[in-house]
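Chains adopt folds. We examine one example:
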Amino acid sequence: MIKVVIKTDESTKKITSIEVKGHSNKAPYGKDLVCAAVSAIITGGFNALQDKEYSFKLDEGHAYVKALDIPSDYDAVVLKTIQVQLQTIEEADKEFIKIEIL
């Protein structure tokens, strides 16, 4: 199962970090559309961030981005878009991805 943890800043309500761990195991490696979709969302989303103040990790089975300062309005939209896209996958495949928002 893919586990996603999204943290937000209490005062601004902006997303400050997203961590994705695991594999869905819905299909054999290389044919798993859930993993492929999550990977595409995360990679594209991380590439769209414009602020330079982030800590990143992007490895097989583990992706992480943490804002070192409150994200700009632009980046806040990018991070929220990542969240909504992942939630769309979760709605369709609840047994393969779980999202926790803190």
About this structure: Residues 73-92 form the longest helix (20 residues). The beta strands are 2-8, 15-21, 54-59, 62-67, 97-101. The chain has one domain: 2-101. Residues 43 and 58 are 8 Å apart (CA to CA).
